[in-house]
Design brief:
The structure holds two protein chains of two kinds. Chain A is mainly α. Chain A contains eight helices and no strands. Chain B folds into two domains: 3-103, no CATH class; 108-180, no CATH class. The chains are: A mainly alpha, B mainly alpha. Chain A: InterPro entries: CHR_Transporter, Chromate_transpt.
């Protein structure tokens, strides 16, 4: 999209967060792919890995997801002022609309036009969420390997959907394991190498013995 | 609005949001409890109207409600108080936590954590996709949902169109065409 190059970081933040605050229909989570697009793809303020981390932690805390993320992105870019600007840009348009439009609420919420608009947007958001699911899934498999990857999908799904644990709990659980994952991976690798080395030595010893026995 | 009410706004919205786990809709009953039951800042009917308007507009539901109720109770000062109580605590908590994480960016523990949240995010997004899909089918039916999804996918993934444009396009289609389709 040929947006005029906005160079002022505060304006960039405001514009990005205003867009997401005005187009985010379908509930809290529907802004997530929109914010991701602005932050990771469009302005390239951070990579997907970091975005995923922020998203996970933001989900583990209470409160509206969009404002938490807007605040962090703003903070990361331009400190506390950035955080304030970012959040305001996101919530002010809809806030003002709320105050201004309450008298029209009967018309607005019943209007077929508004219903149609909201209805048509939901599949678009669903597509963005689906793509995000796929891309994070890909990353997970790349980083963890196929078996651990699929295993963790199954575990996450089981905990979230079947056991219906609260997402915050599941995230904390995975974070806790994640803290030890690298260490365990290295330890497991080392043990495997030692085992292979030992097996190699045993085989060589065994061959020698076999040869001697044959000659007896 | 005297300063006691101002303080009540802050405390009320703080409580409603600090207990509101699980995103937007989870905080609605909590806000109802503060706004209608505890402080009578609005009647049940009014709250229902606020919610209806809130759902017709974009943006986080919690801030929409806070903005309206805050303004209703105490003008701009009230709106600012309610919004601050809603937004600041969790935003500050997130920033502090991430700062700590960022300081230890290079540690294998943090790298492991970044890696291990990816499958969880993937599954959560998948579940949301499913729920959105269900919601779409419920409001506009299978055919339109699939058609819009297919066009959206093609535009965003193949043609790399900015999602904002696709969404505005969907608004246009939804606002102009859908109301005239046979129910």
């Amino acid at each position: 999209m040929s947006e005029a190059k906005i160079s002022n970081p505060y304006l960039q933040l405001s514009w990005a967060m205003m867009k997401t605050g005005v187009l985010g229909y379908g509930g809290g989570p529907s802004v997530i792919p929109l914010i991701r697009y602005e932050a990771v793809t469009h302005y390239k303020w951070l990579e997907d890995e970091e975005f995923g981390e922020i998203l996970a932690l933001a989900n583990a805390l209470p409160g509206p997801i969009a404002t938490k993320m807007a605040a962090y992105l703003g903070y990361r870019k331009k400190g506390v002022l950035g955080a304030v600007v970012s959040v305001l840009a996101h919530i002010v348009p809809s806030g003002i609309a709320m105050v201004a439009l309450l008298s029209a609420v009967q018309w607005l919420s019943g209007s077929a036009v508004v219903q149609g608009m909201i209805g048509a947007v939901i599949p678009v958001i669903a597509v963005m969420l689906g793509v995000m699911a796929y891309e994070f899934g890909e990353k997970a498999v790349k980083g963890l390997g196929l078996y651990v990857g699929i295993g963790s999908f199954a575990l996450a799904f089981g905990l979230l959907q079947l056991a219906e644990l609260h997402p915050a709990i599941v995230i904390i659980f995975f974070l806790a394991y994640g803290a030890f994952h690298m260490r365990m991976k290295d330890a497991w690798k080392k043990r495997r190498e030692e085992r292979l080395l030992k097996r190699g030595q045993d085989e060589r010893l065994g061959q020698k013995e076999g040869v001697t026995r044959g000659l007896d | 609005m005297d300063w006691i009410e101002w303080l009540q706004l802050i405390i009320g919205f703080f409580i409603a949001n600090v207990l509101g786990y699980g995103g937007g809709p989870a905080s609605i009953p909590l806000m109802y409890r503060e706004v209608v039951t505890n402080h009578a800042w609005s009647t049940p009917e009014e709250f229902s109207n606020i919610l209806a308007l809130g759902n017709a507009l974009p943006g986080p539901i919690a801030t929409k409600i806070a903005a309206f109720v805050g303004y209703d109770v105490g003008g701009w000062a009230g709106a600012i108080a309610a919004l601050a109580a809603t937004v600041v605590p969790s935003a500050a908590a997130l920033i502090i936590l991430l700062n700590i994480l960022h300081k230890h960016r290079q540690s294998p523990s943090v790298k492991g954590m970044t890696l291990l949240v990816q499958p969880v995010i993937a599954i959560m997004m998948l579940v949301l996709t499913w729920q959105m899909g269900e919601s779409a089918i419920e409001s506009i039916g299978w055919l339109q949902s699939l058609l819009i999804a297919a066009v959206a996918f093609w535009l965003m993934q193949m043609r790399k169109v900015h999602p904002a444009i696709v969404i505005v396009g969907a608004f246009a289609y939804g606002g102009i065409v859908i109301p005239h389709l046979p129910a």
